Amino acid sequence: MSDSDLNDLVNKLRSVTGHVAESDNYSATVKKVNSDTLLLLEVVLRNHPCALHLTPDNSDAAFQFVLQRLEESLAVSAGTGTEFQKLYNWINEVSQSLEEERLRCVVANPKEFCVEMQSAFMTELGIEEIPQYSQNSESYQCPWNILFVLLSGFVQPVHLIKVQRGKLTVPNPTPGVVEAIEQLQKDEYDTAAWKQLLLLLDEFPISSVRNIWAAAMTYFPSCGPIVAAYVQRELEELRKAPKLAECGEEKDTLATFKDYLRLFNTFYRHLHVCCDIELYNLYFDFIVEFVQPDEISLHSMFRAALKDVGHHPLSTPLWRRYIESGPFTTDRMKGREWTKRVYINMLQTPLQDLEKIKEDFDNFITMEFHGRLLPEEQKSIDKRFTRAKADANDLLTYIETICSRTNYFMAIPPEREKYCVLSLSDERRAAKKKELISVWYSLLLSVKRSCGGGNSSSADLRRQRSFLRMRACFFGFDIPFWAEYLNFSFSKNSLPEDRANAMHIGDYFMKSSTCFALYIADLHVSVFHDYEAAFGVLKKALLQERKVLIHYLKTTSSTDIAIPLYHLQNIAVIVVNWMRMGMNKKNLFHSMLVAQFAMHQIDFLSLTMGVVKKLLIEKRIATPEAYLKPFHTFLYYWIRLELIRNRRAEEAFLVTKLWAEHLKLLLSSGKEKGWTPEEGGVDQLFFQSCHDVVLVHSAGVDAIVSIVDDLHSRISPDTAGRFTYAFEKLKHSLYMASGRTLPAPTSGCVRVNLSRNSIPIRYDAEYLKNSLYTRARRRLGAQEAVVTLKRTRTEVDAYPDESLWLPFSPGSQENLPPPPAPQKRERERPHRRREDRRGHSERGILSISTRFLSLGEQILYTDFPTRSTPPQDTTKLEALMKRLPTFVQYNPEYKSERVLSNEWLVDFMRQTESMV
Questions:
Q1: What is the dihedral of CA 673, 677, 678, 679, to 10 degrees?
Q2: In 3-state terms, what secondary structure has residue 718?
Q3: Is the pLDDT of residue 330 over 80?
Q4: Does residue 859 share a domain with residue 794?
């Protein structure tokens, strides 16, 4: 009895006894529900979206269905004149109130949160308005807001980042409940505290702690034991009250309908993502006992359930209930053939109690077919039964660990995992997860082995796909398991329906995962060749990251400083992959359009500088180089894509110039704060981009040098850091790459770089072609012909190999050439003396072939071009160079074999005039 009914009864008793006048709120006549209203309520329940299989793994059909219902309802005029309009208006309001009730302990303002979620869902559907609650089309037997609330109410961890969390409240709590709630207020994903709290809530009535259970199912949507325990308690409460058809009063009827609708919504959200057998059994208990659908609808529900979990070893009760429901045909011959096919499917599936199923099948054959079957059919059934029985014994040993009801597993988002600072409960959970991963691996290995590997039938493939889906839903938020499930679903023998379902059910869990979005986009391109769908997935992921960063900039909460950096990195990764993915369409302007979208629609630079400014004001970081790195990485790869794939050097040069303008502002700001250029954001990516531009766009050498000189002039010598070295190295490489000569030194001293990285090997020929030695010989007027070195770097070679930028698909491994056969090596005798079979050193060969001039020779030819000196004796130097180890090999035993004198080298260096 509700509080209002109790108050009415008390007022009536007081009025009868004469203590007080009868209250005006009391209704002398109780309003009874009519048969039409009761029939409409029953029809609404039987046409619930869960009963029609408009589930999360079939979201395309659900979206089309809800769009059609919204269009039809918008065309109807609003009003509550008829009984139908009044009832459907009330059901729409009840659907909204149930959603707010579910989120009461999750968010502080559930009404505002529901409005934001519905607005985002409307944007996803591409509509601007929704009907009023009183606008309902009579052509649809279920109000539109039921499905609309269910589809828009899938709460993901990313949705809870920007909202204030709700408080968990329990009336008259015990000390244990208070302690658990305090732990959950600190960390809502504390699995040990949740288990303790839910265990203690068994002592409270379900009506007082229903919000706590709803919060637990929101945080852990794929935890079957939690959902099954809640549903079990709700069913117990429903069995105590009269059923919907037995309620005489209108108020009791509507309250009972509300309880039914709440439980139906729970099944819709969790049934297809938990893959829990007990939950499916409770679902059919509720359907058969309280809803009572027709035979065709019931058979359709059974087929959908067996498609999801029919290969589970513990699904024997579902199969039995399916057979007991009987065929929905009146033809006896077709009915017994249907029952026979169901029994055969059970006997070839590894299930629990297969011996008992075999006995029931034999009894059925004896009664219906007089014990006669074709010999080939009987032989095939026995063979499959023996194989399935052996497989079932192996699987049941693993399933007992996975489906434990006492020590069950609760999947949490990866960003809430703790890898460094672990408490005792976190260590136990991590150990439990490792154990379950190994158990699932052994189970799937057993399934794959029993399915015959490459010679699998269609039933074996469905069985493997089913177990992969169960594992992915079991762990929920782990991308490797979803990737394996998607790879299998997109194989050659899969159906388009299976591919779509795999993507939709994965998107239910991984909606906020950048890695999953990139994976789905790559599947759209590599399998379906649908670039528009892939770009839509990436655009949606970018907008989601933008929302998170904008919320971070608007709030003053003490969020971890790694969170904004993580989302900035996600934006850079998505944008770069989006630009690369569109290159396959050979659209020269694709990268520019994507970059404009990132700069103007996503506001990548504004978000980056906003995050840096906020963290610096709050004094949570000392220097901003880490938060500027994602934006600079985006610019670096934009330049490389323009050079390598589009061959648009002018566009790359323009981007580099704009990048330099941005760095000037950073250097000016950092100079006031005493930052080094590296701490202010000027990193090696900019210098590498300048070098890449000059490699292709040789006409821009002077402009690039002037840009770098301008940057160098803005740096204080006290805070130069490594910038001066990088600046000099870049200028040197720019002249080397462009084929020009170095400018003459300002003093009489010639600078020689001793670092081997200062002159890359691939540019030695270009350097020696215009070396001081060649110029000196020309000034001397040598009569002999000067050997012109062949130009090894052509315009085509300046571009890297395009194959490195092409997307890689697992199927391309089959087309790779086989690896070369290993070369036969001569087998050495055990006591044979090891010989030195090495050839001349690669470094020595290179030095002999190019012969760098010594410092004395260069000064001699530069200052005294008319003087002729005899060549120095370099035999010892050449001998030393021949014995030097190569870049790729080194023999440690060589040191003990021969000792070379290096006194001559010391004497030679003493005679050197100067070395800088």
A1: 10
A2: helix
A3: no
A4: yes
Please tell me whether residues 545 and 587 are part of one structural domain: yes
- Residue 21 structure tokens: 């006048």
pLDDT at 406 over 80: no
- Asked if 330 and 318 touch (Cβ cutoff 8 Å), the reply is no
Q: How far apart are the first and last CA of the chain?
A: 97
Confidence of residue 721 (pLDDT cuts 50, 70, 90): low
Nearest to 517 by CA among 594, 575, 597: 575
Residues 676 and 767 grouped into a single domain: no
623, 534: one domain: yes
Q: How does residue 743 score in pLDDT terms, banded at 50, 70 and 90? A: very low
Residue 705 sits in the same domain as residue 843: no
Closest C-alpha to 447, from 585, 311, 571, 644 = 311
Closest by CA to 257, choosing from 568, 525, 43, is 43
* Strand residue runs (E) in 519-659: none
What residues are paired with 249 via a beta bridge? 32
Q: How far apart are CA 304 and CA 497, in angstroms?
A: 13
Quick: pLDDT tens for 354-392.
999 999 998 988 888 877 888 888 888 888 898 888 888
Q: Which of the residue ranges 183-187, 517-521, 801-805 would you say has the lowest mean pLDDT? A: 801-805
Label residue 532 exposed, middle or buried (CB < 10 Å: 0-12, 13-18, 19+).
exposed
Q: For the residues 299-323, what does the mean pLDDT come to? A: 91
| Residue 147 tokens, joined | 């499905």
User: Domain boundary at 595, 620, 646, which?
Assistant: 646
Q: Are residues 877 and 755 in the same domain?
A: yes
Asked if residue 273 lies in contact with residue 227, where contact means CB atoms within 8 angstroms, the answer is no
Confidence at residue 695, expressed as pLDDT on a 0 to 100 scale: 80
Sign of the four-CA dihedral 706, 708, 714, 717: negative
For the chain, give the number of residues.
916
Q: What single-letter amino acid sits at 665?
A: L
Instruction: Provide the 3-class DSSP secondary structure of residue 422.
Output: coil
Rounded CA-CA distance 620/48 in Å is 52
pLDDT, residue 850, reads 44
pLDDT in tens, 782-802: 444 344 434 444 444 444 444
**Is 900 a domain residue?**
yes
Record the tokens describing residue 95, joined without a space.
């659907």
Please tell me whether residue 479 adopts helix, strand or coil conformation. Answer: helix
pTM (2 decimals)?
0.72
Query: How far is residue 311 from each of residues 24, 218, 380, measured CA to CA in Å?
Result: 61, 27, 20
Amino acid at 520: I
- CA–CA distances in Å: residue 306 to residues 277, 279, 286, 316, 475: 10, 13, 17, 10, 21
Q: Which two tokens stand for residue 780?
A: 């001397």
Residue 769 confidence (pLDDT) above 90? no
Q: Residue 395 domain-assigned?
A: no
Which helix (H) or strand (E) segment holds residue 30: the answer is: none
CB-based burial, 259-272: b 16+ in 10 Å, e otherwise:
bbbbbbbbbbbbbb
What's the structural domain count of the chain? 4
Q: Which has the closest alpha carbon to 612: 624, 595, 622?
A: 624
* Residue pair 130/70 in contact by the 8 Å Cβ criterion: yes
pLDDT tens digits, 296-310:
888 889 998 998 899
Full residue range of the structural domain in which residue 655 is found: 648-726
User: Is 301 inside any structural domain?
Assistant: no
How many angstroms separate the CA atoms of 93 and 471, rounded?
A: 38
Most confident range (mean pLDDT) of 296-300, 721-725, 893-897 is: 296-300
Cα angle 315, 210, 146 (rounded to 5 degrees) comes to: 75
**Residues 754 and 688 placed together within one structural domain of the fold:** no
Please check whether residues 686 and 609 belong to one and the same domain. Answer: no
Residue 162 neighbours by CB distance under 10 Å: 16
Question: Which CA distances in Å does 463 have to 351, 444, 469, 496?
Answer: 12, 10, 10, 17
**What's the Cα-to-Cα distance from 247 to each of 168, 238, 250, 874, rounded to whole Å?**
33, 13, 8, 111
Eight-state DSSP code of residue 824:
P
Cα 322 from chain centroid (whole Å)? 37
Partner residues linked to 32 by β-bridges: 249
